[in-house]
Amino acid sequence: MKRDTGLQPERTNLAWNRTTLAAAACALVMLHVAAERGWSVATVPAVCTAAVAVTLVLLGRHRHLGATRPRVLLLVAVLVTLGCAGALPLVLSGPR
After folding, report:
1. I want to staple 48 with a disulfide (CB 3.0 to 4.6 A). Which of 21, 33, 62, 83 is the partner?
2. Is residue 86 within 8 Å of residue 41, measured between CB atoms?
3. What contacts 24+ positions apart, CB below 8 Å, involve 19-27?
4. Residue 1 lies in a domain
5. Confidence (pLDDT) at 52
6. How many domains is the chain partitioned into structurally?
7. Structure letter (DSSP) for residue 40
8. Integer Rg of the chain from CA
9. Is residue 71 part of a domain?
């Protein structure tokens, strides 16, 4: 008996694409801020966010290989946490 999946695979693919695009846009904004501030400490959250975007691209392309493995999810969580923790002082310090 064949199961009718409907549009679910397409919606899942679109969700991965939107999330990856948002992460890439955030990484570009953070790289712009890092360039304006002289590539100092502001580089750390930009690199972490770019790594999240790349990881999301790889996970989106290879979901069938086990994208929900605990180690992979832990990697994404650590990268997001480092990016946010590194960006928080930059946001609180205000513009230069």
Report:
1. 83
2. yes
3. 19/56, 19/60, 20/53, 20/56, 20/57, 20/60, 23/49, 23/52, 23/53, 23/56, 24/50, 24/53, 26/53, 27/52, 27/53
4. no
5. 86
6. 1
7. S
8. 17
9. yes
The stretches in the chain having pLDDT less than 70 are 1, 3-5, 63-68, 96
pLDDT of 22 reads 92
pLDDT at 70: 78
Closest CA to 13 of 2, 21, 3: 21
Please state at what angle helix 8-36 crosses helix 43-61, rounded to 10 degrees: 160
Give residue 67's pLDDT.
Answer: 53
Whole-angstrom Cα distance, residue 48 to residue 27?
Answer: 8
| Parent domain of 16 | 8-93
